[in-house]
Amino acid sequence: MAVRRPITILIVNPNSSVSMTEGLEPILADLIHPQLELRYLTGPKASPPSVNDFTTSVLSAAHTLPSVLAILNSEGAEVPDAVLVTCFSDHPLVGMLREHTDKPVLGIFEASVMHALALGQPFGIVTTGKYWEGALTEGVKRIFGSGDLGGAFVGVESTGMTALELHDKPPDLVAAGISAAASRIVARSARTIIMGCAGMSGMEEAVREGCGGERVRIVDAVRSGVTMLECLVRAQTL
Fold it and tell me: CA-to-CA distance for 127 and 166, rounded, in angstroms?
């Protein structure tokens, strides 16, 4: 029987902050096995250092698209089997890439909401800046066709920090902000919490600290995206 080559997933950070990309590697290291490889791409220097609103979403997508297409259109075994966009939003790069490739493309926002729905409990999102409370709620409605998903989605609470500040601010202040937002979303009846920023990966303890003893499941959006894409590729190739 022929040995199947490993599945390769391209992890795309569409902002220009290399530190954010590098921060993902240890978080995802335990998902790698002989039949799964992860490659990483950071947006070019012209891309915003952090995606904080609609304008920076569009700019990051426009600047990063050519770099991803260059990889997808290359020859040989270096071409990835799937692409994960690691900005937690209804990010335009996801749709743009789907126009140019038939390979599976997911954003971590979309992947984590599907993950949370499958767990069967009311869920909410803890995210970064205030802007995202409305934007992510609208994103759920656009992608999934419902504002509350039949009562499953209880809403979004923000920390007041940008994605970049999650890495740059003192860890105790970051943890306090995440814990406070988690406490507010639990008070709204969430029993599954999505960590709504790639920069939050690995910060489960801060979320749990804010849950006040409630039994809550925590979804890491980046890990959801990787595992979902691996399954999608295997389902296509079996």
Answer: 11
CATH number for region 7-107+223-237: 3.40.50.12500
Q: What is the mean pLDDT of residues 38-47?
A: 97
Q: Is the pLDDT of residue 77 over 70?
A: no
Residue with tokens 């978080």: 27
Structure tokens at 124: 């909410």
Tell me which of 115 and 160 has the higher pLDDT. 115
CATH fold group of domain 109-221: Rossmann fold (3.40.50)
Determine contact, residues 221/108, Cβ cutoff 8 Å.
yes
**pTM for the complete prediction?**
0.91
**Start and end residues for every CATH 3.40.50.12500 domain found in the chain:** 7-107+223-237
Per-residue tokens: 36? 């799964």
